Amino acid sequence: MVGGGQLARMTHQAAIALGQSLRVLSVSPDDSAALVAADVRIGTHTDLAALREFAKGCDAVTFDHEHVPTAHIAALAAEGVKIYPGADTIVYAQDKQRMRERLSELGAPVPRWRPVAEAGEIAGFAAEAGGWPVVAKAVRGGYDGRGVWMLADAAAAEELVRTGTPLIVEERVPLVRELAALVARSPFGQVAAYPVVETVQRDGICVEVLAPAPGLPEERALEAQQLAIDLANALGVVGLLAVELFETADGLVVNELAMRPHNSGHWTIEGARTSQFEQHLRAVLDYPMGETSLAAPAVVMANVLGGPDGGMSIDEHLHHLFAADPGVRVHLYGKQVRPGRKIGHVTVLGDDMTSVRARAARAARRLQEGE
Amino acid sequence: MVGGGQLARMTHQAAIALGQSLRVLSVSPDDSAALVAADVRIGTHTDLAALREFAKGCDAVTFDHEHVPTAHIAALAAEGVKIYPGADTIVYAQDKQRMRERLSELGAPVPRWRPVAEAGEIAGFAAEAGGWPVVAKAVRGGYDGRGVWMLADAAAAEELVRTGTPLIVEERVPLVRELAALVARSPFGQVAAYPVVETVQRDGICVEVLAPAPGLPEERALEAQQLAIDLANALGVVGLLAVELFETADGLVVNELAMRPHNSGHWTIEGARTSQFEQHLRAVLDYPMGETSLAAPAVVMANVLGGPDGGMSIDEHLHHLFAADPGVRVHLYGKQVRPGRKIGHVTVLGDDMTSVRARAARAARRLQEGE
User: Fold this and answer.
1) Is B19 left (phi over 0), alpha (psi -120 to 50) or beta?
2) By Cβ atoms counted within 10 A, which residue in A15, A145, B81, B237 is the most buried?
3) Could you tell me which residue ranges the ATP-grasp domain spans (chains A, B) (predicted)?
């Protein structure tokens, strides 16, 4: 796995169960996965020579993030490396303009959008799309709320354009809530779909995932799953595809695509019969897909973020949490605490979504802030 | 963790979730845990200098097996190393004679037994204990059916005694079935008990574990749990204690003790809210214990043993298994296949014990023998 973050860390846990060991290409020996994997190579994902050396002897190569240049991926594939998802596929998770174009071609539901180079174009789009505010997105490189701007007026648009960031602009979708549909697809073409979840964001960062999405009508859940399956097939995804969706009064709208284990799927470690991490490995290693059914009627994952002071003793907080709620499942990523940084997550399973959600939120708060 | 077998391998998976990384003292770099852990030291558990070097900088030291000399454990403890279970405790899992003596003192239910040095003593015991056959056990070093002999007559006793192995002899208990009671105890003295399971043996090797033990009356389950809790307290166990039990028409009898993650607890990885591996870590790191409740009404673990030809392609068999039953959980240990060697296990969760057991047995057979 290229990239040594928490996704690679948790993928390593899944690899161990399959009798495998994950080789990790990590920028630093202190990265989450580098701290726990047996076979760590230090190198940069933008360095083709490092990637080539890394890939030698791997059964398959896949990614913890979407920042590997597609030219490098294509070069390795041409040399016979089994590398998934391929360059022609992952580009739609790297480049929001290409993604919007392709989804529009495929007839998938997307917001009104436009590539823009000048502030005047943004103002023009705003005038057509129902007025300010509009949403500007960096074509490349955004994550966790970075690279997304809510523009209130022409002045804000002007300021953003001056940074020189390549942008697209989108209408602000009047959303009821956000959902995510996670599927995995093997090279053989088998696709498995997880139950559709609700994702709860704060400041652009996912803080909670509710599985299954509470009160989602079955036909809408099926529609979301079918949409994700169709996109996985159309884009030729191998591995996981997470489709981030807006639920609106008028139906579903695709927000973003990710092609790797995804924060919206962390609940599957305990909450589904097959975790997304194992599923991703099964896909890229061309094994048959695993069962995706829920392990409990209600599953909630809550992210644990570094507190504003950054000075918490996670170990002490963990003691308090374990004493207070012995049934919470904890995943810590071995990261230095920084304000707002995802340093772990908790998962709670139960029968009733309201109480499960309250327990998960309390547990995350306890890890962040102590008692 | 001293020892690099599958127990350390699975403990590493649990350590990762807790934000830790397991350091492993492994005899060989090919050992199960050495293949997947980030911090592996090669050395022998009987070498005090290696143990001392290994322990430097560890928060706590514990064991994947019971073969570390108690003198070494005591020496490290005297030097300030947090090492669990301690020498005065683990001796009861190392030395069957000491274990039987101590259990007899504590009034725990044990078979009639006697230390023996001569064949005549075995014959004398057999005469007193209801006749042949009787069970002879090596005082030290037995596991997975090794070090246990069913003696049919005086000639067999004579032959065994001639090997010079220090022995105890026990009556053959007329058992209904075998059970196991697993508890974990922290240095603080908190004890958590798992549901009592049935263990199914073949040729002295555990092949299946049924959780909870089917049809076990609640009062007998509570009795087994209480017995394990009492023993953990009386022996000062820190970490896991597995009490292997015979269920007889007249009640429970203690067969063996183990003080580490145990094969009878592998089902807890998916089948209980807290896995035995995390629980062991929580105990030796002095965290509060985790919830032990079942994740499904019926959970079955089946061991996967190397087939007689030793030539199976585990990878091909895994493909078949995943295609045939996408809901089976698989754990492979990264071991070379040898006849009868435990190379992995499978776990199935469900509502009905009969069908869950059949699925688990079929899955283990598929991994062992293919279609």
Assistant:
1) left
2) B237
3) 100-285
Mean pLDDT of B67-76: 97
A8, two tokens: 């690679």
Nearest alpha carbon to residue B149 among B204, B205, B111, B94: B204
Q: Rg for chain B (alpha carbons), in Å?
A: 20
Q: How far separated are the first and last CA of chain A, in Å rounded?
A: 37
Which residue of B36, B277, B347 is the best one to mutate when testing the A interface, meaning the one whose CB has the most A CBs within 10 A? B36
Tokens read off for A211? 């599985």
User: Are residues B16 and A12, on separate chains, in Cβ contact within 8 Å?
Assistant: yes
Domains in chain A, CATH or no CATH each = 6-83 (3.40.50.20), 112-171 (3.30.1490.20), 175-369 (3.30.470.20)
Task: Quote the CA–CA distance of B14 and B272 in Å, as a whole number.
Answer: 13
Q: Is B313 on the interface with A (CB under 8 A)?
A: no
| Per-residue model confidence as pLDDT tens digits over B251-269 | 999 999 999 999 999 999 9
Chain A residues with beta carbon closer than 8 angstroms to that of B15? 36
Contacts 24+ apart (CB under 8 A), B222-225: B223/B251, B223/B252, B224/B179, B224/B181, B224/B196, B224/B252, B225/B181, B225/B183, B225/B193, B225/B196
Confidence band (pLDDT; 50, 70, 90) for A165? very high
Q: Is A18 on the interface with B (CB under 8 A)?
A: yes
Sign of CA dihedral A261, A39, B339, B204: negative
Residue pair B345/B32 in contact (Cβ under 8 Å)? The answer is no
Joined together, the tokens standing for residue A365 give 């708060």
- Tell me whether strands B148-151 and B175-185 are parallel, antiparallel or unpaired: unpaired
Length of chain B: 371
Q: For residue A142, what pLDDT is reported?
A: 73
Is B308 a residue whose pLDDT tops 80? no
What's the complex ipTM?
Answer: 0.96
pLDDT in tens, B192-238: 999 999 999 988 889 999 999 999 999 999 999 999 999 999 999 99
User: How confident is the model at residue B204, as a pLDDT?
Assistant: 81
Contact A136, A130 (CB under 8 A): no
Annotated binding site of B: 96, 137, 170-173, 178, 255-256
Determine the average pLDDT of the residues in B31-58: 98
Q: How far apart are CA B74 and CA B70, in angstroms?
A: 6
Give CA–CA dist B251/B355, Å, rounded: 28
Please report where in the chains the tokens 């959970």 appear, as a residue.
Answer: B299
Query: Would you say A115 and A168 are in contact if contact means Cβ atoms under 8 Å apart?
Result: yes
* pLDDT of A141: 83
CA distance readout (Å), B198 to B57, B171, B173, B181, B201 = 39, 22, 17, 9, 10
pLDDT at A193: 98
pLDDT band with cut points at 50, 70 and 90 for residue B309: low
Could you check whether the bond before residue A195 is cis, i.e. omega within 30 degrees of 0? no
pLDDT per position as a tens digit, B79-131: 999 999 999 999 999 999 999 999 999 999 999 999 999 999 999 999 999 89
d(CA A278, CA B35): 18
For the stretch A86-123, pLDDT in tens is: 999 999 999 999 999 999 999 999 999 999 999 999 99
- The kind and range of the H/E element at A168 are strand A167-171
The tokens describing A236, both together, are 């030729």
CA distance B279 to B229: 15
Annotated binding-site residues of B for ATP read 96, 137, 170-173, 178, 255-256
Q: Is B350 on the interface with A (CB under 8 A)?
A: no
User: Using CA of residue B325, residue B326, residue B330, residue B335, what is the dihedral sign?
Assistant: positive
What's the half-sphere exposure (Cβ side, CA atoms, 13 Å) at A62? Answer: 31
